[in-house]
Write a structure and sequence with these properties.
The complex is a heterodimer of chains A (about 140) and B (about 210). Chain A is globular. In chain A, strands 1, 2, 3, 4, 5, 6, 7, 8, 9, 10 and 11 form an eleven-stranded antiparallel β-sheet that branches. The model of chain A has no long low-confidence stretch (mean pLDDT about 85). Chain A is built from no helices and eleven strands. Chain B has about 210 residues and is of the alpha+beta class. Chain B folds into two domains: about 30 residues; about 140 residues, Lipopolysaccharide (LPS) transport protein A like domain (lipopolysaccharide transport protein A fold), CATH 2.60.450. Chain B is built from two helices and ten strands. In chain B, strands 1, 2, 3, 4, 5, 6, 7, 8, 9 and 10 form a ten-stranded antiparallel β-sheet that branches. In chain B, a hairpin with a 4-residue loop joins β4 and β5. The mean pLDDT of chain B is about 85. Classes of the chains: A mainly beta (about 140), B alpha+beta (about 210). The interface between A and B is medium-sized, with 31 and 35 residues. β2 of chain A pairs antiparallel with β10 of chain B.
Chain lengths: ~140, ~210
């Protein structure tokens, strides 16, 4: 368990979310939306790239627009902020709690050093992150820390 | 009956036998002599449609076309006017069109367009001109052209589409409405945006 400051990340949960992809399937019955093909999610200073993104949203009240409650990205997930790059197999962005969880051989590149672990939990509101599960720092040979 | 009464009876019968036929002849002739002359050129006053215009440009008014595709989607189109296109026998053109696609599970998609051409041979209906589609799950799509197959479940917009819905504003290069099997239930419609998709979602402030 290593506490990781995420200095470069100020993402306001109310910032608009822009999602770009090759295709989007909307299941009319459940309303679930699945983006496929070079998916890129942008919100504030955060970028999340993946092969596939499933978006679940909570039904809004009467007439109120429903809102995205969570996004599940899978396949070559890369999260970038102005100063950090995190990579993993999957990522779940829970908009309600403002938390992004990247899992599956996570690598975090931050300020020149590389941190590896099983799971990286980032709290967008406070801009802090926590690497969990066999956390190890990969020192790049030949670079003085 | 006394003898005198019998005489009176036969005399009135003989009189009536003469008067009644004469009266009917007079009545009958009056029928033809006094009738109003009929002006064939004047159109029937109650016709709401201008007969000459309709004769010049033959079209059907308030027409309705419906067909069920092989896999169970019901396609229905109503138009203010429908006419046989100049192109060919199997081609018809319609204006002020509304169409409805009903999936086997009952979910409906409503479309409107300024024009529609129905190609009977190709079993394809093309909606053109400000095509809008509202689907069951709250999406409203706008496109310039929508191709709707009449023999199988396929409706697609080959060109750019703009959609507003629960997720926000979607812009896409193309769109297709396809029939997707639902395990254990009737199939339903699936909305697929293709050719590059961009979604803008504005979260509700202050949640």
């Amino acid at each position: 368990q290593t506490q990781v400051p995420f200095a470069g990340l100020e993402v306001d949960r109310d910032d608009p979310v822009e999602i770009v992809a090759a295709a989007l399937d909307v299941d009319q019955q459940s309303g679930r939306a699945i983006f496929t093909g070079e998916v890129l999610v942008a919100q504030g200073a955060m970028r999340l790239a993946a092969d596939r993104l499933r978006v679940d949203y909570a039904e809004g009240g009467e007439g109120a627009r429903s809102r995205i409650s969570s996004m599940n990205a899978s396949g070559n997930v890369i999260l970038t902020t102005p100063e950090e790059v995190a990579e993993g197999a999957e990522a779940v962005y829970d908009l309600d709690s403002g938390q992004v969880t990247i899992s599956g051989d996570v690598l975090l590149l931050q300020g020149g050093n590389v941190l590896a672990g099983d799971r990286l939990v980032i709290d967008l509101a406070t801009g802090t992150g926590r690497m969990e599960g066999q956390v190890r720092t990969l020192l790049q040979p030949g670079r003085t820390p | 009956m006394a003898y005198g009464a019998g005489l009176w009876h036969s005399r009135t019968v003989a009189g009536l036998r003469l008067v009644l036929p004469l009266a009917s002849v007079v009545l009958l002739s009056m029928l033809f002599l006094l009738s109003r002359e009929i002006d064939p050129s004047r159109a029937v006053p109650t016709a709401a449609v201008d007969a000459e215009d309709l004769a010049r440009d033959p079209r059907i008014l308030a027409s309705r076309l419906s067909s069920v595709t092989v896999d169970g989607t019901e396609v229905e189109m109503t138009a203010a006017t429908l006419r046989i296109a100049a192109g060919g026998r199997e081609q018809t053109e319609a204006e002020d069109v509304t169409a409805r696609l009903t999936a086997p599970d009952g979910r409906e998609n409503h479309l409107t367009a300024r024009r529609a051409t129905v190609d009977g041979a190709a079993e394809m209906m093309t909606l053109a001109g400000a095509v809008t589609m509202t689907d069951g799950s709250g999406y409203t799509l706008r496109s310039e052209r929508m191709l709707i197959a009449l023999d199988r479940s396929s409706a697609r917009s080959p060109g750019p589409v703009q959609a507003d819905g629960p997720l926000g504003r979607i812009d896409a290069g193309a769109m297709a409405l396809t029939l997707t099997p639902v395990p254990g239930g009737p199939a339903t419609h699936q909305l697929r945006f293709e050719g590059g998709v961009r979604l803008i979602h504005q979260p509700e402030p202050g949640e």
